[in-house]
Write a structure and sequence with these properties.
The complex is a heterotetramer. Chain C contains 19 helices and 2 strands. Chain C is mainly alpha-helical. Chain D folds into 2 domains: 75 residues, Four Helix Bundle (Hemerythrin (Met), subunit A) (Up-down Bundle); 169 residues, no CATH class. The chains are: A mainly alpha, B mainly alpha, C mainly alpha, D mainly alpha.
């Protein structure tokens, strides 16, 4: 089906073209910019809807562009890519609305939204990449496109944060690149395919493969913020709230996690990776990061930094899922890719709202915000509870499957304690916030309150996004078994990943 | 005939060496230029000994032409360098 | 007419230069027209090679050997096209860069002579003719450097000239020895005659040494930064992007196509090592540099180093697709650097004229004052680092894979470190550029200066990054010396 | 016996040459260095003659020794008279010496082999064979203006570039020599002599030693002499004429080349029957250009009012572009 072959390209263009046009717009042309943004986002959403339908019916969509005799750019839609594409597209729409509200009167909006669209393009491209070469191209592009957003404020602090972010990610990028090229020299072009490419090829020297795996995991681990490569994430929190929300809850960190899944399942093949003895190594790092992130989060008073460390911890669940051999764990990992994204972005939206309307940046200032900003705080609470793993919120599903998977794989004796420990820690750093927000009396005046206007606690563009995403997180939990729910989709992927 | 050729080509190499050494040693413009010219003369001499085919037979004209070209190029380069030096002096005096 | 493009591409700029001397009033117009005509000619040449393979023009109708021949094959024609594109862009740029008419009148004739030298050099098929064109190149390049008319520029120019003359003389000594042993100056005839003898080895050494000086390979790079940094922006662009590169081109020619019997893996390894040091040293110096153009100049030292790292790999790899791939990657690196570095220097010139200086630390907020120029700097920076999408990304990809295939993995470390340093020095600038500034400029200011730079940067990134697939077959099929 | 005498002669020439070269490069007195350099040039001229290269003997005497010498002499007027020892550290000097010595030995070794291996198959036979159809009987001229005419064309471009640079950089230097009646008197008969000689050299170049470059140098000498003798009379020529003379050589060369290209599809392919004429035309024009170029180079810069044309149409002069 010809149209379907070009669908991935259209999905890229739907954010690329608006982005490029926006760069050329004058600061004042607010309306045009907004409508371009929304138009792009909605179009993308529609196209993605089509793609879901197609992939579900196993239509093959595959675009190739020759770069050199043995390297080609491949856009390819499979079940796994659809997960990530959908996630980033939906959240892009929400975040765009949020960002329009958030950046009302700040300067250089054209530049901001331009790079913002480029980021989404890179993320989606990375999700749709059909081979390692293409994946790496978009992986690096994502780094480049996010740099200006982190540096956006232009303050010394922002530029410094951006530099650190860049040092980490490009450093990792180099390692990933070397690993990938090395792999190409011994195994030829690497097209992603379910159950892995390398599992097919014998005769490869296992130790070379182990080295390559190490290089690539380090490279991806930087973006996935695996310990000890996580250092950039808290630094990058200087970025404006929408950036933190989309990039550091979804695009960047997920790109890393997604890459790890790709490498483990579609390059090495999970059974083969296990045979090489790579999974325990990955699992150990992931497990340690989970606990480490939570512990660090405990001691953070700055809200966004606490959320950042929580991200570090939560994203590693995905790596953990990939590192445990067995369908259930795989499902858990993949489904968490979605769930964590939805929940974490809610938290960041909320944090942004507190900062915007009340000037609240620290946990210690949050006493009684619940009464001042009920909607936002409600969303925040749902997401936080979800993070802890309270049923029936989405987070519970992921953790449940991870646990089951661990038991199934017989790895339970060390995974289960990790899961329990981290859940307790999650509770330990989220519940106090909720307690302060709802039950403690508000301080007589907020640090920097904006005059209340309109019937809502704040402008709708800022209030609705977290409410919506929170609702989504709840629904994903409640109707986990419904068709096209993340869980169902993850099950579908897993069915395709495990041959035997 | 070999002997003459050898003698003169060795002389050429010697000239080349002397010039090269001085070029590397000197830092002032004019001595360095003189050295470069000496160096070039050495190369020209090598060319001409190649052309020389003994007392009775006529020499190869090609190297002669090449050296003629070389001489003209050398004088042009010399003139240009001296002009650059003069301009620098003027700027230093300002 | 069409078949003689190989002549026109040299003669037209020469006539242009003569006209611009005689009627300085019409110099700018003449320069632009003759450049566009030469550009067209270079396109025709590439097409000729593509259609009917490498070809030769025996000047004066004397068969090569007695006479001089011009030759075009994949390598030379592609480089010719690149250099004409860069030169044409720089010409448009220069026509609005030099605001003083007197300066312009001095600039054009020399500029067109530089173009003559570049094109003649790329097409020459005769060893002594190479010497003459090399001299023409050095002299015009030095003259253009001196146009800045500052003390720094003059000192740089003098140094540049004397070192250049020394290089040419060493080269000429090599030519003499070659003629002594093999009685011909024609490159093709030579490639058939040459054999490993003491004479040929020493001659080869002298030729190589002369060219290494001109291509500024570490440790012979010392003359480059001052010259490239103090010349007027369009000149710096040509110097860094082209003048250094054509010397590398001749070196490749001699190494790959003429002296292949003589060269030893050891010598290749030596140059590779020097290249590696150049990558690290040049990038490090670029990171230390306080001025934008000086940074760019040092980055050129590093980028030249990459080209030399290819040599030991190409020598080591077996004949066939791997070797060809490595060679094409080398060419791709050279092309990308040509476009990227020229775009960078042109933009640096815009910044310099806007701010009145090019001290990196004081460029705060250029991103807001000159959005497009900053964007161009970023694009060319991407190409200099070797990030996708850019030709050098592919180039480095093959550089690394060739290192693995040739079993010389240590180059990979060098490439990695070099790329990280490059990232550091490029984003150091961008970091400052994103700094605070009140005045917010329009997207485009000074189109005749910014658009050419943008076009060059796009060539370096998108066009070579995504559109260079055809290059690989072209090079592997059409890279050889055409005989008569 | 004769052999022996020749060898002694050769040996003494070579030793003297090396001595002069060494002196030029090692003396600390600029004046002496230049003098020795000129002497070396004259000796080289003798050596060229000895090695049966009369064209070069002429060229060396007029250009190598003459013009270069004159350039150096006029340059050292405004230049420190003593050469300070270079700042190079002893270690570096040692390195340089060792390096040069090694190179010299290496090259001698190579040449030793080369002279033995040289198969004698050089271009000379071809040159001799083709000379009849080249239009000139002097093989050197045949090579310069026909077989390798392209080199000569680019060589003229080199000369032009150098002179353009000189004109770009400085205003002309006015001779410090106080023009004496003696000099003026001498000029009166020397200049015509030089002009005639150069004409003769030009003409004779077709079949005997001589040619455009030697002739051009002679003519240049005449122009320079005029400038020296009558410094008061500033503008001997109109500047348009000077510009015209400067480019006419290459221009003619290129036009003839293109004409041949359109005629025979090959650049610079002269028909045997007109070759002589065409070459003479090119050489004549080249002579004028070379003479003008060398004279301007000697003057060391722009004659008065050289850039008037440009100045006039520089109505809007904003900030200076160069960096």
């Amino acid at each position: 089906m010809d149209f379907f072959d070009h669908l991935p390209l259209l999905i890229l263009l739907s954010s690329l073209i608006p982005g490029l046009v926006i760069f050329l717009l004058r600061e004042e042309s607010h309306g045009l910019r907004t409508s371009l943004n929304l138009f792009g986002a909605v179009t993308k959403l529609a196209l993605v809807g089509l793609m879901i339908w197609g992939v579900y019916h196993e239509w093959v969509s595959d675009m190739r562009w020759q770069i050199t005799p043995d390297l080609e750019l491949v856009l390819h839609a499979d079940a796994l890519s659809v997960v990530f594409v959908t996630l980033s597209t939906v959240l892009w729409l929400v975040t765009t609305i949020y960002a329009i509200g958030y950046l009302e009167h700040s300067p250089h909006r054209s530049r901001f939204f331009g790079f913002f669209s480029l980021c989404v393009t890179a993320t989606v491209g990375l999700a749709l990449a059909g081979n390692l070469f293409t994946f790496i191209i978009f992986y690096e592009l994502l780094t480049l496109a996010t740099y200006p957003l982190v540096a956006h404020k232009g303050s010394a602090e922002a530029v410094r944060g951006a530099r650190i972010y860049l040092t980490y990610t490009l450093g990792g990028g180099v390692l990933l690149l070397i690993g990938a090229i090395w792999l190409h020299t011994i195994a030829g072009p690497i097209d992603f395919q379910e159950r892995g490419v390398l599992s097919g090829l014998t005769q490869l020297d296992p130790w070379t493969l182990r080295w390559i795996f190490l290089f690539m995991i380090i490279g991806l681990g930087v973006k996935a913020a695996l310990f000890p490569l996580h250092g950039w994430l808290p630094q990058a929190m200087v970025a404006p709230a929408p950036v933190s929300a989309l990039l550091h809850a979804v695009a960047v960190v997920k790109a890393g996690a997604f890459g790890i899944i790709r490498v483990v399942y579609d390059v090495f093949g999970v059974e083969y990776a296990d045979a090489l003895g790579l999974l325990p190594f990955l699992g150990a790092i992931a497990a340690f990061t989970i606990v480490y992130g939570s512990v660090k989060a405990l001691s953070q008073d700055h809200l966004k930094r606490r959320l950042a460390y929580s991200t570090i911890s939560q994203v590693s669940y995905i790596a953990l899922g990939a590192a445990i051999l067995g369908p259930l764990a795989t499902i858990g990992g993949i489904v968490h890719l979605v769930h964590q994204g939805v929940m974490k972005i809610t938290l960041f939206f909320a944090a942004g709202n507190y900062a915007e309307t009340l000037g609240v940046h620290h946990v210690s200032e949050m006493d009684g915000v619940g009464r001042r900003m009920p909607a936002t705080t409600l969303a925040f609470s749902i997401a936080a509870l979800g993070m802890i793993g309270i049923p029936p919120i989405a987070g519970f599903i992921s953790k449940w499957y991870l646990g089951m998977g661990a038991l199934q794989a017989g790895a339970g004796y060390w995974v289960i304690p990790v899961l329990i420990a981290s859940s307790l820690l999650n509770a330990a750093y989220f519940l106090p916030i909720l307690y302060r927000a709802w039950f403690k009396p508000a301080a007589e005046k907020w640090p920097k309150e904006k005059p209340q206007s309109g019937r809502w606690e704040m402008s709708g563009a800022l209030m609705w996004p977290p409410v919506i995403t929170a609702a989504v997180a709840l629904l994903f939990g409640l109707f986990a078994a419904a068709p096209f729910s993340p869980l169902e989709w993850a099950t579908l992927i897993t069915a395709r990943e495990y041959s035997r | 005939m070999i002997s003459e050729q050898l003698l003169y080509s060795l002389a050429g190499i010697g000239l080349f060496g002397i010039g090269l050494r001085a070029t590397l040693l000197h830092h002032m413009l004019i001595p360095r230029l003189l050295a470069l010219n000496v160096c070039g003369a050495g190369v020209f001499l090598i060319f001409i000994t190649i052309a020389y085919a003994g007392a009775e037979s006529r020499p190869d004209a090609v190297p002669h032409a090449l050296v003629l070209t070389g001489i003209v190029v050398a004088v042009s380069a010399t003139a240009m360098s001296l002009a650059l030096g003069r301009r620098l002096e003027a700027l230093n005096d300002e | 007419m069409m078949n003689d493009a190989i002549i026109w591409v040299i003669i037209i700029p020469l006539l242009g230069s003569l006209i611009s001397i005689s009627w300085s009033r019409y110099a700018s117009l003449t320069a632009i027209i003759s450049n566009l005509l030469a550009l067209a000619a270079s396109i025709v040449i590439v097409n000729q090679v593509y259609q009917s393979g490498p070809f030769i023009h025996e000047l004066g109708g004397w068969q090569a050997g007695l006479g001089i021949s011009l030759r075009a094959d994949a390598l030379s024609s592609v480089l010719l096209l690149m250099s004409m594109l860069v030169v044409s862009a720089a010409t448009f740029y220069a026509s609005s860069y030099f605001t003083d008419a007197v300066k312009r009148a001095r600039f054009w004739p020399l500029w067109l002579m530089l173009v003559v030298a570049l094109n003649a050099l790329l097409l020459s098929g005769d060893l002594f003719n190479l010497y003459v064109t090399l001299e023409l190149l050095s002299l015009s390049a030095v003259a253009l450097t001196a146009l800045s008319d500052s003390r720094a520029a003059l000192q740089a120019a003098i140094r540049y000239l004397s070192i250049g003359l020394l290089g040419s003389l060493v080269f000429l000594a090599g030519v003499a020895l070659v003629y002594m042993g093999y009685g011909t100056l024609d490159l093709l005839a030579l490639s058939n005659k040459i054999d490993a003898s003491p004479l040929s080895q020493v001659a080869f050494g002298l030729l190589t040494a002369g060219l290494l000086i001109k291509s500024a390979l570490f440790p012979l790079h010392f003359w480059l930064p001052s010259a490239h940094a103090s010349a007027p922006a369009p000149v710096s662009a040509a110097l860094s992007a082209l003048v250094v590169k054509v010397a590398v081109y001749i070196l490749l020619r001699l190494w790959m196509d003429v002296f292949d019997q003589v060269l030893t893996p050891l010598s290749a390894m030596l140059l590779g090592t020097l290249g590696a040091i150049a990558v690290i040293w040049g990038s490090w110096q670029a990171l230390q540099a306080q001025r934008l153009k000086l940074m760019a100049a040092y980055s050129t030292v590093a980028q030249i180093g990459y080209l030399f790292i290819f040599l030991p790999l190409i020598v080591a790899l077996p004949e066939g697709s791997l070797k060809d791939a490595a060679f094409t990657a080398l060419l791709l690196m050279a092309l990308t650097h040509g476009f990227a570095k020229s775009a960078f220097f042109l933009s640096a010139g815009v910044i310099q004229q806007y701010c009145g200086h090019d001290r990196i630390a004081e460029l705060a907020g250029t991103a807001r004052a000159l959005p497009l120029t900053t964007f161009v700097i970023a694009l060319s920076g991407v190409a200099l680092i070797g990030l996708p999408p850019s030709g050098s990304f592919l180039g480095k990809w093959y550089l690394v894979s060739s290192s693995f295939q040739a079993g010389q993995w240590w180059w990979v470390v060098v490439i990695a470190v070099g790329s990280i340093l490059a990232t550091a020095y490029v984003f150091r600038i961008l970091g400052y550029a994103f700094g605070p500034r009140e005045s917010v400029g329009r997207v485009l200011n000074g189109g005749r200066k910014e658009i050419p730079a943008l076009i060059l940067a796009l060539f370096a990134t998108l066009i070579l990054g995504f559109g260079s697939a055809g290059l690989w077959d072209f090079v592997s099929q059409h890279r050889y010396f055409p005989g008569s | 016996m004769i052999e022996l005498l020749w060898s002694v002669f050769d040996l003494s020439l070579v030793l003297l040459l090396l001595a002069l070269a060494w002196g030029t490069c090692s003396t600390r007195d600029v004046m002496r260095a230049v003098t020795l350099f000129i002497a070396m040039g004259l000796l080289l001229a003798i050596i060229w003659a000895r090695l049966k290269a009369p064209d070069l003997a002429l060229a060396e005497a007029v250009i190598g020794a003459g013009i270069s010498g004159a350039l150096f002499l006029s340059a050292i007027k405004d230049y420190p008279s003593t050469i300070t020892v270079s700042h190079r550290t002893p270690v570096l000097q040692g390195l340089i010496n060792a390096f040069t010595l090694a190179l010299v030995i290496l090259m001698s070794w190579a040449v030793w082999h080369g002279l033995n291996m040289s198969d004698g198959i050089r271009l000379s036979d071809q040159v001799v064979a083709q000379a009849p159809v080249s239009g000139v009987s002097n093989p050197v001229t045949a090579v310069l203006l026909n077989f390798r005419a392209y080199d000569t064309l680019l060589e003229l471009a080199v000369v032009l570039t150098a002179v353009l640079t000189v004109l770009t950089l400085n205003d002309r230097r006015y001779s410090h020599v106080v023009s004496s009646p003696l000099l003026q008197g001498m000029t009166h008969w020397l200049v015509p002599l030089l002009v005639v000689t150069s004409g003769y050299l030009l003409w004779v170049g077709a079949h005997a030693p001589g040619g455009a470059f030697q002739a051009g140098a002679m003519l240049a000498a005449a122009m320079i002499l005029l400038q020296l003798a009558f410094p008061s009379r500033r503008q001997q020529f109109s500047l348009y004429l000077v510009r015209f003379l400067l480019v006419i050589g290459i221009f003619t060369f290129v036009v003839v080349g293109i004409w041949m290209l359109l005629l025979n599809d090959v650049f610079l392919a002269f028909d045997p029957d007109w070759a002589g004429t065409l070459i003479l035309i090119i050489e004549t024009m080249a002579t004028l250009s070379i003479a003008t170029a060398l004279a301007l180079a000697y003057l060391g810069g722009r004659p008065m009012g050289w850039e008037e044309g440009a100045r006039n149409n520089s109505a809007s002069t904003e900030n200076e572009g160069a960096g």
